Amino acid sequence: MITQSANWVNQSGNGYAINTGFNDESLMRIELLQLEIKNKFPALIWPTPSDALHISLMDMVSPFIDYERDKNEIFLELFRRHDNILQGIFRYEKRFYIKASEIEVTPAAIIIVWEDDGHFNKLRGKFLENTAPFPGTKQPPDITFTTIARYRKDGADLAELEKFLAGKNIDVIEKVNTFRLVREKVVPMIRYEIIKIYKLS
């Protein structure tokens, strides 16, 4: 397995998404893992900044897709219907816990995969029962994960990194109390504004 560089990081973007962040203790534990990896592979790794760490529920308008219309106009068209659907879903969804399950190395990134007892996919499924993503927008992911690092260069062999992270655990249990609708301005989630918070019951 070899790397695919993230040459698009820290660039201006425009997108709208539903995601959730982390509490301070969880962030600290993730940051310590990032630092450990960065110290071992300083020329290879670009760690996700602390404020940008999140778990995505779904995109509403993707920052990486060139739509035929203005993205802000698309969002305004979608917002009322999508907001009503999301309010209806979250109003009856109880708060739940997720636990870090494994650290996975992929060609594009290093991710933490979370055990969530199917909560994220259940929420995605309820949303898709009521509406479809705007044409051209990718379908919601089918796993619950956080991208903690990307790569600075193409074509690097990941065997040593895989060996380094094999069997490594991260002790994080996070309580999901809220989701947020965000507008992403600098990717990936380096600069964004929170438009609305949705509280779970």
Short description:
The protein is of the alpha+beta class and about 200 residues long.
Question: Keywords for this structure?
Answer:
201 residues; alpha+beta; Cyclic Phosphodiesterase, Chain: A; 4 helices
Q: Helices and strands: which structural class?
A: alpha+beta
Total beta strands: 9
Low-confidence stretches at least 5 residues in length (pLDDT < 50)?
none
Strand order of the largest sheet: 2-6-5-4-7
Rounded average pLDDT: 96
Strand content: 25-35%
CATH class: Alpha Beta
CATH domain fold name = Cyclic Phosphodiesterase, Chain: A
CATH architecture: Alpha-Beta Complex
Number of discrete helical segments: 4
Compute the separation of the termini in Å: 43 Å
Spell out the helices and strands N to C.
EHEEHEEHEHEEE
- Helical content class: 25-40%
Q: Judging from the principal axes of the Cα atoms, what is the shape? A: globular
